[in-house]
Amino acid sequence: MLDLGRTFLQSVERSPDALALVDGARRLDYAGWHGWIAQVAHGLRGLGAGRGERVLAVLQNRSEMATVHWACQFLGAVMVPLNWRAKPEEVGYVLGDAQPVVALFEEVSADAVRRAPGIGAVSRIAVGCAAQGDELAFEELGAGGDVPALRPEAGAEDHSLLLYTSGTTGNPKGVPRRHRHERAAALGHVAQNLYRQGERTLGVMPLYHTMGVRSLLSMAIVDGLFVCMPRFDARQALQVIEAEDISCLYLVPTLYHDMLAALEREATDLSTVCKLGFAGAPMPQALLQRLQQVFQPDLFVNHYGSSEVYTVSIEQNAAARPGSAGRAGVNTRLRVIRLDAAGPEDEAAPGEEGQIIADLSGDEAFEGYWRRPDADAKALRDGWYLTGDTGYRDVRGDLYVTGRVDDMIISGGENISPVEIESVLSLHAAVDEVAVVGLPDERWGQQVAAFVTCRAPVDAEELDAHCRASDLLNFKRPRRYVFVRAIPKSPVGKILRRKLLAGEYELASGAPTDKP
């Protein structure tokens, strides 16, 4: 299999004049971007970033971030992208765990990087902000002299990327991925989303997250355009879609939700968008319906996966099959095992909720965590990866993801998943967003509670009547409604149920002041 450096060269050789990268006023074709990547790679090599060495980047989705990613692929260095919101101690943990030779930062992350424990031993590069002390400005990287021809120095078996998962407890886990893992995942993404040559995508999903990396690589596979968007702004996103003739979107549901809200205030021509994809969290049925109506896409993909096994399943007709995550991707095998399963062979019956697992021999699957045998022991079993996600297969064999094992609500001895309840409530016209959790209950163990943001006035009695009129089983109905200003989410749009359980939210104006 080709490595990723040679993969990029394919696009340079096929379509040197095709527009490849846009970041504000910066517009580069493949030949021009290749030249910039060569300069940056030359500079990184001079700082010790050779084959197998790690390069830490605490940057937003700017052109320098995308360029460093590709430079690492040519050098054989391992890209280590980190959330630009990380705190000094979080940066310090990754410095100690990954042991990079170079760290890049920008204004928004400068303080955290400069204060991180252990940063003094690492070469530091300031991007778009003033360098201090012995730091190097990004513009100086590889400048001032002849830049040698850029040749791929990695092979398919070399590590390409070290992603850090955002765990809810304890330190994050490093997920090392080889060039062949990443290329197989990009090819699978192209195939399953029916991308054609010259596609154009909005590069807003963060490049420290697998969704962002997949958008970056898949565009290179098809000689396409990656339009950088450092920080999501719904109004700006609509403007970029129209201005750059974006053809495909791959976002988390939250960003689609915010984009539709902005569209109500500002008319935008979205006619060039013909393919929608989402991942990262289930999409409420009401949002699916609204997106289908607004975009009328040729393809609407629900992509279920993880950093460890990029694609677990794909549903290519998401609007017609709400909630369905489809079937195993082209590079994957999956199973649903019983929640109390002794091993991977103990599969759940159709309709029975269990834990979703994926075959580690799949082309996109990782091989184990970075220096974490404890995490391997918990998540890897007999050649299968235990995702920690719950779900079931229907009689057709389609997968439905219902939540996390840790999010399961147990009320009166019954297992209740939040996702089904959230989807039902999302269909009420007054509900904007909803998150369901299990609150402690002396009699039942846990009670189902719905945290709701509204687009129109509504009360608990009306929402309860809506649930009673639906197909939702009686024991799954929320017993408490909490009206809040906003649902807490992670930077990539995942609902943070733990914050709701901890009381870390603000009640909506006029809502009862007693918190559960």
TrEMBL record:
<dbReference type="GO" id="GO:0006631">
    <property type="term" value="P:fatty acid metabolic process"/>
</dbReference>
<dbReference type="InterPro" id="IPR025110">
    <property type="entry name" value="AMP-bd_C"/>
</dbReference>
<dbReference type="Pfam" id="PF00501">
    <property type="entry name" value="AMP-binding"/>
</dbReference>
<feature type="domain" description="AMP-binding enzyme C-terminal">
    <location>
        <begin position="420"/>
        <end position="494"/>
    </location>
</feature>
<dbReference type="InterPro" id="IPR000873">
    <property type="entry name" value="AMP-dep_synth/lig_dom"/>
</dbReference>
<dbReference type="InterPro" id="IPR045851">
    <property type="entry name" value="AMP-bd_C_sf"/>
</dbReference>
<dbReference type="Pfam" id="PF13193">
    <property type="entry name" value="AMP-binding_C"/>
</dbReference>
<dbReference type="GO" id="GO:0031956">
    <property type="term" value="F:medium-chain fatty acid-CoA ligase activity"/>
</dbReference>
<protein>
    <submittedName>
        <fullName>2-furoate---CoA ligase</fullName>
    </submittedName>
</protein>
<dbReference type="InterPro" id="IPR020845">
    <property type="entry name" value="AMP-binding_CS"/>
</dbReference>
<keyword id="KW-0436">Ligase</keyword>
<feature type="domain" description="AMP-dependent synthetase/ligase">
    <location>
        <begin position="10"/>
        <end position="370"/>
    </location>
</feature>
<dbReference type="InterPro" id="IPR042099">
    <property type="entry name" value="ANL_N_sf"/>
</dbReference>
<comment type="similarity">
    <text>Belongs to the ATP-dependent AMP-binding enzyme family.</text>
</comment>
